[in-house]
Each structure stands twice: as structure tokens, then as C-alpha cells.
Amino acid sequence: MNPLKALFPEQGQAVWLDFVARGFVLDGKLKALVDEDGLRGVTSNPSIFEKAIGGSQEYDAALKSVMDQGDARVIDLYEGCAIADIQAAADVLRPVYEASDGADGYVSLEVSPYLALDTDETLAEARRLHKTVARDNLMVKVPATREGIPAIRALTADGISINVTLLFSVETYEAVARAFIDGLEEFGAKGGDVSKVASVASFFISRIDVAVDKALDDRIAATEGADEKAALEALKGKVAIANAKLAYQRYKAVFAEPKWQGLAARGAKAPRLLWASTGVKNKAYSDVLYVEELIGPDTVNTMPPATMDAFRDHGTVKAAIEADVPGAKAVMDGLARAGIDIETVGDQLVDEGVQLFIDAADKLLGAVAGKRIDFLGPKLDGQTLVLPEPIAAEAKKAVEAWRASGAIRRLWAHDKTVWSNADEDTWLGWLRIVEDELARVSDYAAFADDVRQTGFTDVVVLGMGGSSLGPEVLAETYGTREGFPRLRILDSTDPDQVRETEAAITLETTLFIVASKSGSTLEPNVFRDYFLGRMKAAVGERAGAHFVAVTDPGSAMEAAAKADNFRKIFYGVKQIGGRYSVLSAFGLVPAAASGIDVKAFLDTARTMVRSCGPAVPPAQNPGVLLGTALGAAALAAGRDKVTFIASPGIDTFGAWAEQLIAESTGKDGKGLIPIDGEPVDVPAVYGLDRIFVYLRLDSRADARQDEAVRNLEREGHPVVHITLANEEQLPQEFFRFEIATAVAGAMLGINPFDQPDVEASKIETKKLFDAAEASGSLPAETPLFSDDTLALYADAKNAEALPQAGEGLDAALKAHLARTKAGDYVALLAYVARNPKHHAILQDARVALRDKTRLATCLEFGPRFLHSTGQAYKGGPDTGVFLQITADPSEDLSIPGRKLGFGTVVAAQARGDFAVLAERGRRALRVHIRGGEVEAGLKRIAAALKAALA
After folding, report:
1. Beta-carbon neighbour count of residue 532 at 10 Å?
2. I need a surface site. Which of 264, 324, 627, 728 has the fewest CB within 10 A?
3. Are strands 825-830 and 856-861 parallel, antiparallel or unpaired?
4. Residue 582, φ and ψ in degrees, nearest 5
5. Model pTM?
6. Of the candidates 211, 214, 216, the residue with the CA atom closest to the CA atom of residue 233
């Protein structure tokens, strides 16, 4: 009989295998070990599965078969493979289990190491695995951490067999043994059959010697006496075995007590000591040291294949575990005299063991994530980072920090300490909104059918910020669908813009979507008042049937919608801020109304949600990679101007992303400044403060953009490449950028979910508007300069810095632009109607400004940017130079139920905006166009800007 097979019949020690792999089981090799070597069990851990799944192509066919049926989460792909292997191995070992009356024949599967420090999560995971594997001969592995021991007791009380892992200390072992006894007593008291529960306590052997030998070497190096050195040297390679022998003596003592004997009389099985980590790490030691010296009755030795082969070849079977117990005590006493505390070593090894398993799990899940990406192919939007030094090194360091700290798992677990430890945990509803909304797709489908069958020709979203920018991207990207109305957006209180919108539609066949989370935002309320009044004039009492509300439960908008008999009310989620709401009802209601297939839309988004999920390690997580790149660029190289370049067809995405980035990160004097709408050009027109994000639509790529981006890379600019196979995959980008922004916010050390400076502007605007409603007009202002067509305004501090303003527009703009310096940006903030003519005039000046100064430039239309980039302009880094442009409307437009019209609203918003810019000490100047000749006034301003650059 070979030594392996002799261990159990001759010495009562069961041999288990510390290895599992699919081919090994399916090819009959596991069964051969059972038949030929008397194998009696199998253990697994994340390291074993990492080598099996990540280190080969053995599982690719199984993974591909799952992916061919649709997408899956990384954790589910891994578990599908692991559980199938565990079940197959358990089936091979079932005869051993039955022949031993449940003493042996077990296969062990480990609870996720990520949960090792969480009792409740460990309990939930262990119970789930036990139920999912559905094999009587499964042992669930739970680590002997402080948090794990209560779980061991509770699981035993459930009648679940447990393999307690990461044991190094005799004292901890006793705590585990007593937890098992208490749990088994509880199980029996509930009527459970105590004979059906088994357990093993896995003592890790070789790791103790590795740690202790190193500590001894340090002591030896610091010791001068030859005798002392020799005494310390004599302890090397002996502590692990001595510790195990004393653990065995403790095992015998605990299970000789009357409390256990009562359970034993009812058929209970004592949890055996299992010697784990029995492969020798030090080549100076015998390769079967940790087998031969630990042989004894009622124990288990789980061996890696190499150790098993070695013992089969030249191992010696003899009783050893109780040999020279006094000598073992002497070894441990000598260790204590050397100043090395085995309990402290044990605690350290538990921590290291958990981390090693976490590292292995990260590698394993990273490998599965990589395979998933390969199988998805073009169904997943691509991402490539071209980062020069020092950004690349800083980003790599950040990615590893996120991995080591488990930050992506903590983010998904709503851990506010990922950020500033404020209220971030209450604003993370967007993480799971895609799954939540997929459960409601039938509601959206019914709404879409209602819209189509009613015959609406237009649907107009009345909203601001997150309520309007996402729907605008959908309208421009997806276009008008056959049989469905055209989707339009109104997010400006400029009277001319409101008139333009009304002129483009037929009220009787138009559906309005009034979108406001809080229901108290000024703009959606005045939009509703105006168009509801106009609709009542057109269709009478049926006006409410032309309106749908999207708002949070309990809001003032909900009450108003009910009072006015709106057609339908859709509810947002209070735990989702506006800029993170595009994948919620705020984006999906307009999508459904315009004929976009909401289920397909969400399914596409879910592909990216799963790619950025908690089980996807940072190095394979596209959201984390993008966020760390953006954060690293800003922190390591001062490249905080996130500049968007996008292919035709998806070129409005930047307007949504700039709100997300600016409002999330621009605060506390920090932040990323998004730059959208600048046409890409040669490297010479850019400063060294840029990181470029190129969204490339493969089906409509612009060769000029491709070449320009290549030139930027050649000149050393950092570039993020994101590739989409088609427009329908754009929903993925919403989620990628949401995760990335949250990650970048964590790197910057801010709360990415509040917007204190937006609120400040709202407050200032409300004060002005309320005063105007009371008095009939806004307070009078004194210009720095005025003529028949223009007037210049500034606060006292900016006026003092611009004495040239008294000379007129040209001198004022020249002096204002002279205030800029390298690393600054210039923002044109135009409170006029946003139309192609106005945009073209200001865009021409903007590009000229960039090309001449190499400064980043922003062109924004108010008041919509107040709910977007306005936060960063006021709360972010003080690197902005602002030119606000306001205008008298060609004609004001009254609002039903209010004393003043839209002209006063937009004027109050502009003044409130400027007041907060001034209060924050920003460099700002306001140019007001008089007399309602807006286009002519803009041309004059643009010409003056270009002249100032000469």
C-alpha cells in the first residue's frame, strides 16, 4: 500500500486534496486519486480558482456559452464555473461521504474573502452558497477572523458544515471549537440531527514557519552571543509543528469535556484539525516535513498535488502528532523567551491570509472580467488610455490604491468614507437604477403606446440641468422614430427662446413633460405655468391630458400635477441627484415618449454597469480606470481641463457630461473643468492643462478628428479613447462617466454629490425675482460704460480692476482678457436665445480666443449652464475669466399667474449668477445688449473680442 493510501487505515488521518480544476475532475483524475490513493476530500480557495480559471483557457468554452445567451456579471460568471466544479467534485466524493457516514467525502468552497471582516455578510454569503451548491457533502469555508467566529457559530446552528480556515493560534482554535459546540447545541435544541453536521478547523502550517523564521533571523542578526544565536537557530523550522501539536492537545482536552460528550452521545462528530498550507516554502526543509510530523488519528491533511506526489513517492507513515509533546512545549517556550509572541504572529498571519486571498480573488475576477470583455467584443464600448508620465504612474498608483483598499466594492456598498464622509451614502441610488428600471419596462412600454396611439406630433421636455441635458442627448442622437413625436427640449427662460419653441409646435398635438426633482425649481414651474395657460386657451379643460410630470415623490410638482389632472406622473428616486438621473425616469420618460425602446436602452446600459460592478477589479474596471486617469491628470500634471471631442452623431454627449463633471467635482476650490464644443485643432493651439476625451463613433468617424487626435498624442497630450460601434450604445457612456466622476471626486477629496454654489445662485436669483415681483421691476444698476447698444457692468472689485471699462467695450475686453494667465480658462456666458446664429457668432470669437491665447474656452448659454457648469465656475479652482452677456429681449413674454414675464426671470438669473461669481472673487465682466437687437449686439461683442487679441 502506498504511503498516501496507508495514512487513513493505519493512522486514522484523512488525506484531502488542496486543488480543484474542471478538466481534473471531468477527466477522471480526481476519481483516480480516490480509488488509488484513498483520497477523502477536496479543498479550494481563491488562489486555486485563480490559477485554474485565470491561468488557462480551460473555462473559456463554459464562459462563452453563458455569454452567448446574453451578458452576465463577472461574479456570476466566476461563480457559475466554481460552483459547477464544486458540485462535480462533490459528486465524485459522494461514495466516500456515504461510506464514512458523513465524516469525510467533503468539498470545501470559500466565502468571498472580501467579506472576512463582516459577520452579517459572511452569514448571508455562506447560506447562499450552501443553498446554491445543494450538496450534503459541501463544506463552506469561513475564516477565523474576529468577525468570522460568530458566523461559524450561527452557521453551525443552521446545520451547515463549516471548514474554518486561516487558523494559526491555539487560543483562536479553542474559541472556534467552542463556537462550534455552542452552535451545534443550538441546532440540536431546534430539533436538528447533530450527527449530520461536520466541521474541520484548518491550521495553516508552513506560513507560521515562514513568518517565525524571518523574525528569528532578525533576532539572530541582532544577537552577539554564540550560545544565544545557536538557541535561536535551533527554533527555526520547528515552531509550526510544535504549535500544531499543542493545538491537537487542546483539541483532545476540549472534546473530552462533558458538554461535548453529551453531544457525542447523540452522534455528533468532533470537528477535526485539518493541517493546511502543508507545502514546504523553505527548500532547506524536507518536502514532506509537514505531512510526516503531523500524522495522527482524527486529523486531516490537505495537500497540494506536489506534496501529495512527494509523500506518495517517499513519505513515511508513522504516528507523530503526539510524539514529544514536552519538546513542542519547550519550542514554544523558547519562542516566547526570544520575545516572539505566537498570538501576535497569528493575528498578523490572519490579516495577511485574508489579504492574500483578496489579492487572489482580485486576480481571478480580473481574469474573468478580461475574458468577458473579449467575448462581448464590440457590444461593449471600448476604452484606451494614452497617458504620458507622470500621469501614467500616478494613475497606476491610484488604481492599485483602489484595489488594495477595496474602494470599488466600498463605493457600491454605499460607504461614504470613499469620499468626504459627509452624506454621500444617501446619493447613490444611481448605482442600481438600471436594474430597478428594468423591472418597470412594461410601464414605459405602455406609456409609449399611449403616446403613439394618441397621435402626438411633438413632445417637449420642460426642465433644467439633469432633467433636460440627458433628454437633449437622446433627442439629438436617436432622432425622430417613425410613428412617434419629435422630442424637443426647453431649458431657457429667455423670452425669444420660449417663443421659438412655441412657434415650432402645434399645441393641440403636443405633449409636455415637466421634469423637476424637487418641484421647487424656478424654471420648470414658470414653463409649466406658461404652457399650461396656453394649452387651456387652446383645448380647455383637457389641458392636463397634454402634460406628464417627472418628479420625486411628495414634491410640490406632484401636488400641482394632481391638481391639474396631468396625464401621468412618473417618479424619480430621491437618492439620485439630477446629474446622475439620465438612466432613471428623468431620461426614460422622454425616451419612451419619443419611441426609443426602453428595454433595449437599459440592456445596453447594463453592459457597462456590469463592467463597472463591485466585483470588477480596478485594473479591468472602465469607470475606475477613466476616473483615476482624470484625477491623476489633474493632480499630477495640472491637466484639469477635460476636453471633449466627439464624432458626428454623438457630439451632444459632451453637454451632458460637462454638467456631470463640473457640478460633481467643481467645489472647495478644486475640480475638473469640462470643455465641450471646441472644434479639435492642431496641438499648437492648446496649453499644457488639457486631457482629451475622444468619443469615436465607428460608423460615422471623422478622419480629420482621427488625425488631429493622433497629432495630440504625438505631442505628448493625454488622450482617452472611447469607441462606440453605433449610436445605440451611447447609454453605456452615461454609466461609465457617472462611475468615473465619482472616482475622480474621491481622488480630489470632495463630495461629488452636492452642489453648494448652484444653490447659492438659486437663492440669489429668488431674492431678486421676489423683490421684482413685489416692486414691479429689478433694482436699477449703474453701468461702468454705456452707449446706444451696449452697457458694461461689474461689481466693485472687478470694476476697480478694470478702470479701462469706462472707455468702452474694446478697451474693457482688452483689459479683461489681459487678466488671464497660463492654466486659466475663458468662459463666455450668454443669457440669450440658444440658436444656430447666436452660437455661430460666439463660437467664432471663442475659437479665435483659444487659437491666439492657447487657453481653454467655454461657450455656455444661460440660464441652462447655471444647473451645469455654473457650479465649477463658482466653486472650483479660481482659474476662470468670465464674460457674461445679457440682453434686452426683442419683446417680453408674460407668464400666467405671475406679475412679471420671462424677461425678468432671465435677467434675475443672470444677475444672481454674476453676484455669486463676484462674491466668490471671480474675474468677471458683464456686457448687456440694449434695445433687443441681440444678433447685432453679439456681432459687436465678438468683433471686440477678436480685436482685443490683436
Report:
1. 22
2. 324
3. parallel
4. -65, -30
5. 0.94
6. 216
Residue type present at position 696: R
C-alpha grid cell, residue 337:
523567551
Please state, in angstroms and rounded to a whole number, the distance separating the CA atoms of residues 248 and 297: 10
**Greatest CA separation for the chain:** 110
Question: Mapping DSSP to helix (H, G, I), strand (E, B) and coil, where does residue 568 land?
Answer: strand
CA angle 607, 612, 615 (to 5 degrees): 110
DSSP H or E run through 658: helix 653-665
C-alpha cell at 203: 491550521
Q: Are 289 and 240 in contact (CB under 8 A)?
A: no
Residue 538 has what pLDDT? 96
Cell numbers 518536502 correspond to: 287
**Taking Cα atoms as reference points, which of 761, 767, 752 lies closest to residue 829?**
761
| Rounded to 5°, angle at Cα 236 from 231 and 241 | 120
pLDDT for the residue 51: 87
Q: In the structure grid, which three cell numbers stand for residue 682, read together?
A: 492642431
The predicted structure's pLDDT at residue 350? 95
Q: Where do the H-state alpha helices sit in 255-341?
A: 258-264, 289-292, 305-314, 325-337
**Phi/psi at 199 (nearest 5 deg)?**
-155, 155
**C-alpha dist (Å) from residue 852 to 31, 104, 229, 949:** 77, 80, 75, 7
Q: In what order do the strands lie in the sheet with 510-515?
A: 486-490, 458-462, 510-515, 547-551, 568-571
CA 789, 792, 798: angle at the middle one, nearest 5? 170
Quick one: pLDDT at residue 573?
Answer: 97
**CA triple 490-495-499, angle to 5 deg:** 65
Q: Please give the helix or strand (H or E) that residue 872 lies within, else none.
A: helix 870-875
d(CA 374, CA 426): 35
The per-residue pLDDT for 243 is 96
Please give the grid coordinates belonging to residue 133: 451548491
Segments of the chain scoring below 70 in pLDDT: none
What is the Cα–Cα distance from 421 to 509, expressed in whole angstroms?
A: 49
Question: What secondary structure letter does DSSP report for 268?
Answer: P
Residues tagged active-site: 141
Q: DSSP 3-state assignment of 381? A: coil
What stretches of 42-108 show up as alpha helix (H) in DSSP?
46-49, 60-68, 74-99
- Nine-digit cell string for 676: 465641450
Which pLDDT does position 178 carry in this prediction? 97
DSSP bridge pairs for 924: 882
Q: What is the β-pairing status of strands 790-793 and 923-929? A: antiparallel
| 23 to 18, 20, 84, 371, 720: CA distances (angstroms) | 15, 9, 12, 19, 40
Residues 6 or more apart whose CB falls under 8 angstroms from that of 359 comprise none
- Give the phi and the psi of residue 666 in degrees, each rounded to 5: -85, 85
CA distance 651 to 677: 8
Q: Residue type at 368?
A: V
Integer angstrom CA distances of residue 195 from 102, 185, 188, 261: 8, 12, 9, 13
What pLDDT is attached to residue 537?
A: 96
What length does the chain have?
A: 950
The CA-atom distances, in angstroms, between 429 and each of 198, 436, 444, 473, 764 are: 42, 10, 20, 22, 30
Q: Euclidean distance between the first and final Cα of the chain, in Å?
A: 97
Outline where 190-324 has alpha helix (H).
206-221, 226-235, 239-254, 258-264, 289-292, 305-314
Cα separation values, 897 from 44, 460, 526, Å: 72, 21, 9
**What span, in angstroms and rounded, lies between the C-alpha atoms of 179 and 252?**
16
Element (H, E) at 515: strand 510-515
Measure CA 740 to chain center.
7
To the nearest 10°, report the CA torsion of 501, 505, 506, 509. -110
CA distances from 732 to 603, 628, 739 (A): 9, 18, 11
Q: CA-based angle 648:649:653, to the nearest 5?
A: 95
Q: Answer whether 558's CB lies under 8 Å from 515's CB.
A: no
Q: Are strands 690-697 and 641-646 parallel, antiparallel or unpaired?
A: parallel
As given in the structure block, the three cell numbers for residue 371 are 475574458
Whole-angstrom distance, CA of residue 679 vs CA of residue 686: 12
